[in-house]
Amino acid sequence: MNQENFMQYVLGHINDMVLCFDTNGYIGFGNKEAEEKLEFGKQLVGTHISVIFPNEFKENDIKLETEITYGDDVHEIMAYRFNKTCFAVEAKISESNDDGYHICVMKDLTHRKYLEKRIKQVEKDAEDALKVKSEFVANVTHELRTPVNGILGNTKELISRVKDEECQKILDLMERGCNDMHSIINNILDFSKLEAGKFTLEKREFDFRKMMDYVKGNHAYKITEKGLEFFVTISPEVPNRIIGDELRIVQVLNNLLSNASKFTSVGKIAVEVVKTAQMNRRAELFFLVTDTGIGIAKEDQDKLFKSFSQVDASISRQYGGTGLGLNISKQLVEMMGGNISVQSEKNQGTMFSFSVWVDLPEDEQVAETVTIDRNAFLNDAIHRSEAGALLKNFGSEENREELDKNLSKLILCVEMDNWEKAEGFMTAVKQLTDSAPQEIRTGALRLKMAVQKADYEKTSAAYEDLMKLL
Fold first, then answer.
1. Residue 182 to residue 329: CA distance in whole angstroms
2. Which fold has domain 120-196?
3. Fold of 204-390
4. pLDDT value at residue 427
5. HEC string of the chain?
6. Count of CB atoms situated within 10 Å of the CB of 178
7. What is the percent of the chain with per-residue pLDDT over 70, rounded to a whole number?
8. How far apart are CA 294 and CA 349, in angstroms?
9. pLDDT tens-digit profile of 27-84?
10. How far is 425 from 409, CA to CA, in rounded Å?
11. Contact 17/33 with Cβ under 8 angstroms?
């Protein structure tokens, strides 16, 4: 087989279409793939290239007219079949060779175009389905609010009238359940709006320190009732009045503080705010929310900000929650030009930090120089957090003081028949003795089981036994 026959054999058996045409535009060779795809058969030889590509080539008595560039450029163009129907191809046409021929290599794009069209349709269907789902969720949550509000209103009315203690406890549980339902409904509604892209910030001027007093007031009783210390600190350089979405900043803080309160039984919870940057009349406010709670293992921290995600199933069972709060907080913070992150270790407490950008009113007198370095501030907070972790080191002075305080409050709650609050202090005692010798841990476990059963005699006996061991 000579070279010419070999080349024709190769070209005839490749999957791409191959055409050779002279400088006047007449096709001198077409491989089998081209003959079949273009449906010209053997008539392809002698056909003018403008018949195949009428949009790119024009037949002229003097020369072939075209705007196609020869060489290595790849062109996506339309090729016409014998029956005048067309299909998309990817074509590369070489410069003319010594014999005065151009070689055109084409790839049929019909299947690819079909797949692209299907992908676009699937994406559109998915977007439409997401929109319908989000609208449905928003409508359902709106509808749920009405009966929940009705139950809550009637429950509060009954609480003010009923004097029987057993009935009061049941009504208190109903009120708490309604409030929990309210929080879940609000979270789902916010999530559906964010997911559908219908969430907007509402900026207005407000007093920042009054806002922080409101946040503190919302959480102070619940936190201190658990025997925890609660601190809110605002640096002097933070402006008094700012322009931003007050409701959403409060929402983020409420979520972080609710989590801190939920997962902390001993020690303290603290909120700190500083100004870390300023550009003209825009400022970056940096928030720290720290606790001495159960902490989060490094390998679990990437789950925190994902939708409907908990660190593990036991967290959901023991503490409740939808797993939406931190995801919503992350999206809100990012909408306000900031970011949110976490630093934590298992049993060593947790530190959430987030920043937001706010505008400053024209009449607000603010210092132009920023004196707080974020990294230095964070490092200082980490050192303070590590010092707080000493509470859980059994035998340390801090641990002994905290253990005595919680045991005293526990037995007082038992004497007052307040078993629910006693369980809260028992949780603290259990954490404070986690690193104690085995016999003390066993004694704490016996006390915990007695408290859970609301058995006064067994609780008193277990308490006495534990105190002897301590």
1. 17
2. Helix Hairpins (1.10.287)
3. Heat Shock Protein 90 (3.30.565)
4. 84
5. CCHHHHHHHHHHCCCCEEEEEECCCEEEEECHHHHHHCCCHHHHCCCEHHHHCCCCEECCCCCCEECCCCCCCCEEEEEECCCCCEEEEEEEECCCCCCCEEEEEEEECHHHHHHHHHHHHHHHHHHHHHHHHHHHHHHHHHHHHHHHHHHHHHHHHHHHHCCCHHHHHHHHHHHHHHHHHHHHHHHHHHHHHHHHCCCCCCCEEEEHHHHHHHHHHHHHHHHHHCCCEEEEEECCCCCCEEEECHHHHHHHHHHHHHHHHHCCCCCEEEEEEEEEEEECCEEEEEEEEEECCCCCCHHHHHHCCCCCCCCCHHHHHHHCCCCCHHHHHHHHHHHCCCCEEEEECCCCCEEEEEEEEEECCCCCCCCCCCCCCHHHHHHHHHHHHHHHHHHHCCCCHHHHHHHHHHHHHHHHHHHCCCHHHHHHHHHHHHHHCCCCCHHHHHHHHHHHHHHHCCCHHHHHHHHHHHHHHC
6. 19
7. 88
8. 6
9. 999 998 999 999 999 999 999 999 999 999 988 766 788 888 898 889 999 999 999 9
10. 7
11. yes
* Torsion 125-130-132-133 (CA) sign: positive
Query: Global pTM?
Result: 0.61
One-letter amino acid identity for 314?
S
What is the predicted pLDDT for the residue at 12? Answer: 58
Token duo for residue 6: 């070999």
Name the amino acid, one letter, at 13: H
Residues present in the chain in total: 470
CATH fold for domain 3-108 = Beta-Lactamase (3.30.450)
| Domain layout of the chain by residue ranges | 3-108, 120-196, 204-390, 397-469
